[in-house]
Amino acid sequence: MAPNSSGKTGSRSPLGAKRVARASKRTGRKANGARASLLWRMRRPLFAAGVVSVLVLTGVGYLFTQVPLPDKDPPQLQTTFMCASDVRAGCTAENSIAQLSGGVDRITVTYEQIPAVLIEAVLSAEDRTFYDHGGVDPTGIVRALWANVQNQGVSQGGSTITQQYVKNVYLTQERTLTRKIKEAALAVKVERELPKQEILTRYLNTIYLGRGAYGVEAASRAYFGKDVGEITLPEAAYLAGLIRAPETADAQLPATSTKAGSNRATATQRRNSVLRAMVETGAITQAAYDEASVAGWDNVLVRSDRKNFGDVSHPEWGTEYFVDYVRHWLTTKGGFTDAQVYGGGLRVYTTIDMEDQGAAAEAIKSTLNQPNDPASALVSIDDVGAVRAMIGGLDFNGDGKYSKVNLAVGAEGGGAGRQAGSAFKAFTLAEAMNQGIPLSRSYESPARIVIPKVDAGKDWSVGNYADAGLGSLDITEATMRSSNTAYAQIMMDVGPQNVAALAREMGITSELNPVPALTLGTSEVSVLDMASGYSTLADKGEHITPSVVTKVTDAKGNVLYENKITRKRVLDEKTVQKVDWALNQVVEGGTATGAKFGQPAAGKTGTTENYRDAWFAGFTCKLTTVVWVGYPDGSFMKSVHGMSVTGGSFPATIWRKYMTEATQGLTSCPFVQPEFEADTDPNDTAVTSTTVAPSTTSTTRPRPSTTTTGPSTTTSTRPPRTTTTSTTSTTTSMVP
């Protein structure tokens, strides 16, 4: 650049300076215009956001100023009563079959009786700034959220202790913004009216800590068998860790529970999380943490016997297993909290018929009457889905390893399902009839057949019971004689996926492995599930979800829950008529003649390999009952009363004895033989050799699906299923 008149370089000329000024002015106008245009485009969203903000602030302000602090005392905890089906109103202590309560839920202590170590543990875990805030702590909420993001466990809660007290005493447990705002407003009001020490004492006397215990004194006795003033540091941290969800962290579940290991791990994690929080707040030293965090459980906790049922009616009938199942249902499926169940004064109207329950217990006891006999489970469901009797065991409070396991309900009762054996063939039969295969279709039933390449690419070998060759059988005869080789071929015709899907629709809730061997009952199911599935056949193809509770009210009679019978059409009536006829022939002249009694009945026997499990599942038009016999540990039943136990022996006998009593006064219905249908299928699947090629075609047709709830009915047609042959099958010879 050339020097200017002053001798300096790099300076702009007057003309250049003017150009720069004009350019800058234009750029400024553009920038200001862009900003103005953006604000103009955003004017409506900004206005809406402003209106919403004003409304929210106005609403919050209104709630804080207008929500009154209740002047009444907190409601007293009340016992929950459970009644049998004959009580339809007015469930009381006098007519109940069980009472649910913590038993020690009203033990109140003063502030001076609560040890400092427990107060420090609770404050460190739940509300570190309790003595500094005015009822609501926004900083604490942010800090708790950040702790959750960092996976730090239960280091501290988001709500203050005052908010938790207000929620427990004055409000419901619903999770809504309105309830949260009311909670905050009441917390502020409580802080203005009560001293901190009083709020803390009330809180520690009212919180629910599991095992039916309300308040820290009751909890100390329930978990440690001693007064709260005697607890140690790890025990105090454990109680503080229970506050958020006590039902998932009881470190001493019954030894037979499948969740015992995970609950103990959760309990340890929560306790140590509280101990870490106490280190952070300076309540304890690192050395104290190191010692307390490795404390064991076995010699600390007192036994949790899971009773809490009060005086149960006829415990010798196994009533406690039913009561425990209803308790479990209330807190898992019924939507009630543990606090409501154990202290809310509920009136629970159940479906159990005590006369039927007694008949079921007597049928089992009179049949399996020797000291080393196997156990038995029974579930009976009526034509509206009500569970009339449930035997999950007969010694709930015994010392045996499996005494607390409800053998009737599988995993829900602390145990597992059992293989159903040939009792599962009913679902294959139902799918065959649904696909239009006639009962007249014949299958060769040699002693053993081999179906190539269907067992994970290997041949599938199937044998009849005792390797008996049964000749040519139609489907009714194959069902009566429980032919495994014939049913293996039927399964290949209809498709394992189809059978599994139908079984689920009929009521089986456990996981089913859709492989060819499923027809022989290789998947584990519960007695309740099998009763649910067979009841669909008794109810003419409509599935009704089994129920154990008809109604729940509060102590004043206000209805909190009422069961609504829902019917879902799974099979049409003509299809069910064929299935029921074939199963009726099993009782009349097949493997279940031992189940015959004074009414027309239908059903199927089932026995698994090595006689581990024996079943009879049967029904009349009014009552479906399933009986299982077996040792809980899976031992073989090869010599019980001098015989090997099959479904047609003890299970059928127990079923007959029970049904003889339970069906008195109930309408009986004949099983009508369907019209004969000739087998016109050009792809004849009958075999004359011991090797069968898998079927490459199957007949499918749409199945109507109807759901009926009350007076309304909705019907839709579902697309046909397709047959899928699984390549992961396992089987050996099953017994009828």
Structure characterization notes:
Among the domains are: 104-292, Orthogonal Bundle (Penicillin binding protein transpeptidase fold), CATH 1.10.3810; 418-551 and 562-717, Beta-lactamase (3-Layer(aba) Sandwich). It has 21 helices and 20 strands. The strands form 6 sheets. Strands 2-1-3-13-14 form a 5-stranded mixed beta sheet. A 5-stranded antiparallel beta sheet has the order 5-4-18-17-16, sandwiched between helices. The longest helix is centred in the N-terminal third of the chain and has 28 residues, at 14-41. It is elongated and about 85 Å long. 48% of the residues are buried.
Mean pLDDT: 82
Q: Which class do the helix and strand fractions yield?
A: alpha+beta
Q: Which strand-content bin applies to the residues?
A: 5-15%
As for the CATH topology of the domain at 418-551 and 562-717, it is: Beta-lactamase
Full CATH superfamily name of the domain at 418-551 and 562-717: DD-peptidase/beta-lactamase superfamily
Give the strand line-up of the largest sheet.
2-1-3-13-14
Number of H/I helices: 21
What level of helicity do the residues show?
A: 25-40%
Query: In the CATH classification, which architecture of the domain at 418-551 and 562-717 applies?
Result: 3-Layer(aba) Sandwich
Radius of gyration: 34 Å
Query: What characteristic shape results from the CA principal axes?
Result: elongated
Oligomer: single chain
Span of the ends, CA to CA: 108 Å
Q: Which sheet architecture does the biggest sheet show?
A: 5 strands, mixed
Number of E-state strands: 20
Which spans have pLDDT < 50 for at least 5 consecutive residues? 1-20, 151-157, 254-260, 685-689, 696-734
